[in-house]
Specification:
heterodimer, A: two-stranded antiparallel ribbon, globular, B: alpha+beta, six-stranded mixed β-sheet, five-stranded mixed β-sheet, 20 helices, 23 strands
C-alpha cells in the first residue's frame, strides 16, 4: 500500500510539472509566437500614454524581456522556494508556493488566492455534503421503491436539477428568498471563525443551488447503480442466508453501488475547489471562481496561471485520494 | 484621462465608469429620446439638478456600496478610474477638487487642501499653492507641503505606480539626470524633485517646463493628496492609504471588501467638499452586476460604486414603475462614444470620403446599439459633450435633423472624393463589448447603402490600443479606416477633452489615442493657445472652435453622448449627480436612518 501511495505521489508531482509547463506556455509562449513582443506585453500594464522609459521599466521589473525559459525557471523557483518582490519601499517575501507577481494589483498572486480559498472551500464542502447525502439517499430510496410515485417524482426533480443551469436556479432562489421574501438577505461571505451562524445562513442559498445540480446527478447515478447491484446474485444469496434487509441494502448493495459515485465525487469536489465560477458569480461570493473571472477580465497572466495551477492541483489531489480509496476498497487496484 | 483611460484598462463595467458628468442638463431627452418624458414622475432626474434629501444629520448607520468590478487601485497616486477619483474624496484631500454641488457649478475646480487656487507667475511657468495649516492625517500629525511634494514625487516611478495619470512627469521642469521617483532616488532625504519646492510647511511651488493654464485641473487629480513619506509602503500603500478625509481605512481585503470608519482627526471646517455622516462605509467588490441592482432595489445596498447605471433587467423594472422611476436619474455622463475616421488610410485621407461616412451613418441605429436613449445616450453631433465647459451645439452633418442618415449627400461627397461608386475600408472595434459590436455592425449596414463596403475587425479590449487600433502602423497595414472608441476628459474643459484625441503631437507608435491621426495646424495651434490662455471667455471660444474644426476635418464620427440610468436609494441623503463624474457624489452621502 505504501509503495502504491508513493508511486502515485511521484506521478502527481510529475503531472503538476507538466501542467505548469503547458499553462506557462499557453500564457507566455504562445503570445510571443503570435508576434507579441515583451514591450507590447508590458504596455498593457503601465497605464495610459506611457513613456517608452516607463514601459521599459515595467518590462524589466516583470522580467518580460528575459528568455522564456528563464522566466519559467524563475516561476518554478518561486513555487518551490518563494520569491522576493520589491514593493518600492521594501522587499516583500512571497512564501512558497509563490505563483508570481500580479501585473495588475502589483502584489504577489499567492496571498490573494489564499484569501479567496475560505470562500470556495466553504461553498464546495457544504454543497458537497448536501448533494452527497441528499443525492445518494434519494437514489437509494428511488431504487428500492422503483416505479412508485416517489421514484417518479424524485427522478423528475432530478432531471430538472440536471437540466437547469445554476445561473437560472441561483437567480431564482435569490429572487424568491433574498429579494422578494428576504429570508436570506444580503448573501455575503462571513468567515466561519467570525460568526458561524451567519456563515451558514449566508451560504444556504449557494449550497442548495449548487447541491441541487449535483444531487440530481448523484441521485440518478445511485439509483441506476443500486438497481444493477440489487439484482446481483450475491444480493439474492445474502437474503437467502437470512441477513436483515437493512444489512443487505447498506452493506452489500449500497457499498458496491458507491464505487463509481466515489470516483465522480472526487472529480467534482476537486473541480469545485478550483472555483465554482458560476455559483460564486451569481451569488457575488469572492472565491477562487470570482478571482478567476477578474484575472481574465484584467488579462492578468500570472493570476490566470496561478489559478489554473491551483485548480489542476485540486483535481489531481482529489484523483489521488480517490485512487487511494479504491485501493483500500479493492486490493486489485494496488497491482 | 482617467475616463479615457477606460479605453485600455478595465472591464466593460469599469470602463463606463470613466464617464464624466452632465452639466446639469441631464434630464433633457435631447437627440430625440430620453428618459425625461412628460409622463415621468416628479422625482425622475431630480438629483441631476438639485440635492435630494439634503441633510447634515449624522447617524450610526452603514452605507453599503457594491462594485461589479474592482478598483484599479485605492492608492490616490495610482488610480485612473473615475469612480475611484470620486470615491477617494472620502479619504483624501488633493490640493484642488470639484465643487460639491449639482448642476454646472459642479464642473468648477475649487480648493480642497489648498487655501485658494494656484497663483501663476507672469511667465506662466511657476504655480504656487498654500495649504490649509491645520489639516491632520488620521494619526493626528499635521499635513505639510512636503507630504504633498512626496505624493507628486511618487508619480514619477511608473514601475511602482503604473496606473495613474502621468501629467507631472510631463509638465514639470525636467532635471538632469531625470528624477526617478522616491523609490530609486539616491538623495539623502528622498525629496529630490527639483521642480517642486516647499519653502515652508504650508507652501508648495511647482515649476513647469512650459506654461500650462489648466494646471489647477491637474492638481485636482487625487495624485496631489498628501502622503507621509514614513507611511508610504509602495505598491502596498493601496491597502491602507493614510487618510486626510472624513473616513479612514479600517480594513481592506484586496479586491474583495473595504471598510471605512470615521477619521477622528478630520475637521469639517477644513474640508467643505465632503461630509462625515455615518459610522461606517462598506464596499463589497467584484459583485454580480445584476445582484447589485436587485439589492439596490430591495434596499440592501445603498450605492452602485461603478456609477455607470443599472443593467438591462433592472432598467426595465425601473422604467415600468413610476415609484422606482421617481428614485432614478438619467444624466449625460460626459462620455462620448464615437468612431475615429483615419485621415491617413486611403482613400480616407481625402476629407470628402470621411464626410461621406459622416452623412451615411445611421445615428438612430448607432444610438440603439449603445442601449437606446436612456441607457445608451443622446445622439451626438459634436465631438465635445454638452457638459464640457465651452461646448457649443452645432450639427454639420445632419446628425440630429436626419438621424437615419443622408445617403444622397453621402454620395455627393463620394463624387468629390473621386470615389463615385464607393470604396472599401476596415472597421476596428472591441469584440468583447457587445454594444460596440452592435454599433460596428449597424455602421457597416448603413455605409453599404452609400456604396462604402467595410470589413469588420474585432479585437480584445485589453490590447485594443496597445497592439491594434492604437498602433498607426498596424492600422495602415490592415486598412482600418474606421476605428471605434470612447472618450471622456481628465478635466472638463476643451483642452482636457481634445488634446489627447486630436493634437498632432500626441500621435504615438503604440497606445496612440489620436487614432484618426489628425495633424491639422488649425487644431494644433488652437490647442497650443488654449494651453497658455487663462482668460475664461477666450478659452471657452477655443473649445467651440476646435470642435468645429475637427468636425470640418471629419476626423471623428460622433455617435452618442453617453447616458446612464442611476438608481437612488431612497434612504440616502445628500444625493445628487456630481457633474464632473457623471455619478452620485460619494463624498457627501448620509442616511436618513
Amino acid at each position: 500500500m505504501v509503495t502504491f501511495i508513493v508511486r502515485r505521489l511521484i506521478a502527481t508531482v510529475f503531472l503538476l510539472v507538466v501542467v505548469s509547463m503547458i499553462t506557462y506556455a499557453v500564457f507566455f509562449l504562445i503570445p510571443r509566437l503570435a508576434g507579441q513582443n515583451s514591450y507590447q506585453l508590458a504596455t498593457q500594464y503601465v497605464g495610459r500614454n506611457p513613456t517608452r522609459a516607463a514601459v521599459l521599466d515595467i518590462e524589466q521589473k516583470l522580467g518580460l524581456n528575459e528568455p522564456i525559459w528563464v522566466q519559467y525557471g524563475r516561476f518554478i523557483r518561486g513555487l518551490v522556494f518563494g520569491e522576493h518582490y520589491n514593493s518600492g519601499t521594501s522587499s516583500t517575501y512571497c512564501p512558497p508556493p509563490c505563483f508570481g507577481y500580479s501585473f495588475k494589483s502589483q502584489l504577489p498572486v499567492w496571498p490573494q488566492m489564499v484569501s479567496s480559498l475560505p470562500v470556495t472551500i466553504s461553498l464546495a464542502i457544504g454543497a458537497a455534503i448536501l448533494w452527497l447525502v441528499g443525492g445518494v439517499t434519494i437514489g437509494v430510496i428511488s431504487a428500492l421503491k422503483r416505479g412508485t410515485l416517489f421514484d417518479r417524482f424524485s427522478m423528475g426533480i432530478a432531471l430538472a436539477g440536471v437540466s437547469l443551469p445554476i445561473f437560472f436556479t441561483g437567480l431564482l432562489s435569490l429572487a424568491l428568498f433574498s429579494y422578494k421574501w428576504p429570508i436570506f438577505p444580503n448573501v455575503t461571505f462571513v468567515p466561519f471563525t467570525q460568526n458561524p451562524l451567519l456563515w451558514a445562513r449566508n451560504l444556504v442559498l449557494p449550497w442548495v443551488t449548487l447541491a441541487f445540480l449535483y444531487a440530481a446527478l448523484y441521485a440518478r447515478l445511485t439509483r441506476a447503480g443500486m438497481l444493477e447491484t440489487m439484482s446481483e446474485d450475491y444480493i439474492r444469496t445474502a437474503r437467502a442466508k437470512g441477513l436483515p434487509e437493512r444489512t443487505v441494502i447498506i452493506k452489500h448493495g449500497l457499498r458496491a453501488a458507491l464505487t463509481p459515485i466515489i470516483t465522480i465525487f472526487g472529480l467534482d469536489l476537486g473541480a469545485l475547489l478550483g472555483g465554482a465560477v458560476i455559483t460564486e458569480h451569481t451569488f457575488s461570493l469572492n472565491g477562487l471562481g470570482q478571482f478567476t473571472i477578474l484575472a481574465i477580465d484584467n488579462q492578468d497572466l500570472p493570476e490566470i496561471l496561478g489559478v489554473t495551477m491551483l485548480a489542476a492541483f485540486f483535481i489531481i489531489i482529489a484523483n489521488l485520494a480517490v485512487d487511494i480509496l479504491y485501493a483500500v476498497v479493492d486490493p486489485r487496484v494496488r497491482h | 484621462m482617467p475616463r479615457r483611460g477606460f479605453m485600455g484598462l478595465a472591464a466593460a463595467g469599469a470602463v463606463a465608469a470613466l464617464a464624466l458628468a452632465a452639466c446639469g442638463g441631464g434630464s433633457s431627452s435631447g437627440g430625440g429620446s430620453g428618459g425625461g418624458s412628460s409622463s415621468a414622475p416628479a422625482g425622475f432626474n431630480a438629483a441631476v439638478t438639485k440635492v435630494v434629501n439634503p441633510s447634515n444629520k449624522r447617524t450610526n448607520g452603514t452605507i453599503y456600496f457594491g462594485n461589479s468590478s474592482t478598483p484599479d487601485s485605492t492608492d490616490p497616486g495610482d488610480t485612473y478610474y473615475a469612480n475611484m477619483w470620486n470615491f477617494s474624496r472620502l479619504y483624501t484631500m488633493p490640493l484642488m477638487t470639484y465643487a460639491s454641488t449639482p448642476g454646472p457649478g459642479g464642473l468648477k475646480v475649487v480648493p480642497d487642501l489648498a487655501t485658494a487656487p494656484g497663483t501663476v507667475s507672469d511667465n506662466g511657468l511657476t504655480w504656487t499653492y498654500h495649504i490649509k495649516p491645520n489639516v491632520k492625517f488620521e494619526d493626528g500629525t499635521t499635513v505639510t507641503s512636503q507630504d504633498v511634494k512626496y505624493a507628486v514625487e511618487r508619480t514619477f516611478d511608473r514601475s511602482v505606480l503604473p496606473l495613474g495619470p502621468a501629467y507631472f512627469p510631463l509638465l514639470l521642469a525636467p532635471q538632469k539626470p531625470a528624477y526617478p521617483g522616491p523609490y530609486k532616488d539616491r538623495s539623502k532625504n528622498i525629496m529630490g524633485l527639483k521642480a517642486v519646492q516647499t519653502p515652508d510647511a504650508t507652501t508648495i511651488v511647482f515649476h513647469l517646463a512650459h506654461p500650462f493654464a489648466d494646471f489647477n485641473y491637474v492638481t485636482a487629480i487625487p495624485q496631489t493628496a498628501p502622503v507621509p513619506p514614513n507611511k508610504d509602503t509602495g505598491t502596498k500603500y493601496q491597502l491602507h492609504p493614510w487618510s486626510t478625509g472624513p473616513y479612514k481605512f479600517q480594513s481592506y481585503q484586496l479586491n474583495k471588501q473595504l471598510t471605512l470608519v470615521p477619521n477622528t482627526f478630520w475637521n469639517p471646517a477644513t474640508d467643505p467638499n465632503a461630509k462625515q455622516l455615518v459610522s461606517k462605509i462598506v464596499v463589497t467588490m467584484n459583485m454580480n452586476a445584476n445582484d447589485i441592482d436587485n439589492r439596490l432595489l430591495a434596499g440592501d445596498l445603498n450605492v452602485d460604486m461603478a456609477g455607470t447605471g443599472v443593467q438591462a433587467a433592472a432598467r426595465a423594472k425601473i422604467l415600468s414603475s413610476n415609484s422606482l422611476k421617481a428614485s432614478s436619474d438619467d444624466p449625460i455622463t460626459g462620455f462620448l462614444w464615437y468612431a475615429y475616421l483615419n485621415t491617413v488610410v486611403p482613400p480616407m485621407n481625402n476629407v470628402h470620403c470621411r464626410m461621406a461616412i459622416e452623412y451615411a451613418a445611421n445615428k438612430t441605429n448607432l444610438q440603439t446599439a449603445y442601449g437606446g436613449p436612456v441607457a445608451g445616450g443622446q445622439i451626438a453631433s459634436t465631438v465635445s459633450p454638452p457638459n464640457v465647459v465651452g461646448h457649443k451645439a452645432f450639427d454639420l452633418y445632419e446628425a440630429t435633423t436626419k438621424p437615419g442618415g443622408d445617403i444622397a449627400k453621402a454620395k455627393e461627397q463620394l463624387k468629390l472624393c473621386g470615389q463615385p461608386n464607393g470604396f472599401t475600408t476596415g472597421i476596428a472595434y472591441r469584440s468583447d463589448r457587445p454594444k460596440e459590436v452592435a454599433a460596428a455592425t449597424a455602421l457597416q449596414q448603413a455605409l453599404s447603402q452609400a456604396g462604402i463596403h467595410t470589413s469588420l475587425h474585432g479585437y480584445p479590449a485589453g490590447t485594443y490600443y496597445a497592439n491594434f487600433a492604437g498602433v498607426p502602423k498596424y492600422v495602415h497595414q490592415h486598412d482600418l479606416g474606421i476605428d471605434f472608441g470612447g472618450w471622456a476628459p481628465d478635466w472638463p474643459d476643451g483642452y482636457g477633452f481634445f488634446d489627447f484625441i486630436s493634437a498632432g503631437n500626441t500621435i504615438g507608435a503604440a497606445g496612440n489615442t489620436n487614432i484618426e491621426e489628425l495633424n491639422d495646424p488649425v487644431v494644433n495651434n488652437l490647442l497650443a493657445k488654449y494651453g497658455t490662455t487663462t482668460d475664461e471667455a477666450t478659452r471657452n471660444s477655443y473649445t467651440a472652435q476646435i470642435d468645429m474644426q475637427i468636425m470640418k476635418d471629419a476626423g471623428i464620427l460622433p455617435e452618442v453622448y453617453a447616458k446612464s440610468l442611476l438608481y437612488r436609494n431612497p434612504n440616502l441623503t445628500n444625493v445628487y449627480v456630481q457633474p464632473y463624474y457623471g455619478m452620485y457624489n460619494y463624498a457627501v452621502l448620509g442616511l436618513k436612518s
